[in-house]
């Protein structure tokens, strides 16, 4: 599994010496080793820099395609939600307030023009004026 997440050459290092992105890759490998049917992710990429975050999103999508597990992802990043999700649920006080399907073909590109209407709609639902 370490090879699949790009850490094959880092198997013998101490966990505290891993970078933020490597630590997230290790966490993903740990989660996938049990071959889950559903992967639950709560802000998994929030602490990463922008480039590493995109690389991790791409890795997640590749693993999703290869292994076929379901993913429930919690994120506050609208662009991330549109890039990764087939369906976005907007919560309000713990309840589903809105459901927005994202029927874009895969693979999706980050900040692709066809994603903009979905992101704008989500921002509007969240009360963000543009």
- Helical region count? 4
Biggest beta sheet attributes: 2 strands, parallel
Taken in chain order, the helices and strands follow as HEHEHEEH
Estimate percent helicity: 25-40%
Please provide a written account of the structure:
This protein has 130 residues and is an alpha+beta fold. It has a domain at 77-130. 37% of the residues lie in helices and 18% in strands. It contains 4 helices and 4 strands. It has a two-stranded parallel sheet with strand order 1-2. A two-stranded antiparallel sheet has the order 3-4. A hairpin with a 2-residue loop joins β3 and β4 (95-101). α3 (78-84) packs across α4. The chain starts with 19 loop residues before the first helix and ends in a 5-residue tail after the last helix.
């Amino acid at each position: 599994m370490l090879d699949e997440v790009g850490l094959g050459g880092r198997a013998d290092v101490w966990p505290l010496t891993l970078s933020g992105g490597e630590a997230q890759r290790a966490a993903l490998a740990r989660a996938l080793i049990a071959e889950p049917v559903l992967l639950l992710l709560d802000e998994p990429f929030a602490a990463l820099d922008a480039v590493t975050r995109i690389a991790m999103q791409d890795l997640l999508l590749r693993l999703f395609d290869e292994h076929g597990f379901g993913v429930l992802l919690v994120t506050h990043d609208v662009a991330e939600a549109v890039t990764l999700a087939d369906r976005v649920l907007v919560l309000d006080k713990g309840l589903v307030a809105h459901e927005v399907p994202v029927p874009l073909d895969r693979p999706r590109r980050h900040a692709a023009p066809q994603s903009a209407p979905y992101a704008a709609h989500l921002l509007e639902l969240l009360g963000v004026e543009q």
